[in-house]
Write a structure and sequence with these properties.
135 residues; alpha+beta; 3-stranded antiparallel beta sheet; 3 helices; globular
């Protein structure tokens, strides 16, 4: 984390895995650091002012390691998910216990297209999306 990132206010970053939360009326409230860069393609147009980078930069910085050959290569698939408002900053994330509690309360639902999250103390992964009516 850079020195500039330490100076930024992290209290305004929504809690959880996404760059948004919901107000008491159920309206989506975006993180003030998140935005879209309009002249980029859809899956590379997310930007985080907190990090000072977006999907395009994250995808360029990411390499893949092949444990069989020991070789490092460029990513096969894009990994930046800011375009879909999935956090890359890891600020104000849920604890394992709080996340599991929220799943049990039905605040998340399994979907086909979202970030894969390793379930705590379990040998499975779920693909989740926060329900719009969850608080």
């Amino acid at each position: 984390m850079s020195e500039d990132e330490y100076k930024k206010d992290t209290s305004v970053i929504p809690k959880g895995y996404y760059c948004y939360s919901y107000d008491k009326n159920g309206n989506q409230v975006n993180c003030p650091y998140w935005r879209v860069i309009k002249d980029r393609t859809e899956q590379e147009n997310g930007w985080c002012d907190y990090l000072g980078e977006g999907d395009l930069e994250i995808n360029q910085d990411t390499e893949q390691y092949d444990p069989k050959t020991g070789e490092v290569s460029e990513p096969v698939i894009p990994v930046g998910l800011l375009w879909d408002q999935v956090k890359e900053c890891n600020i104000n994330m849920y604890s394992d216990e709080e996340f599991e509690k929220r799943i049990m309360q039905g605040q998340f639902e399994v979907v086909e297209c979202a970030k894969t999250i390793k379930m705590p103390n379990k040998n499975e992964s779920l693909i989740l999306r926060r329900k719009s009516n969850a608080k």
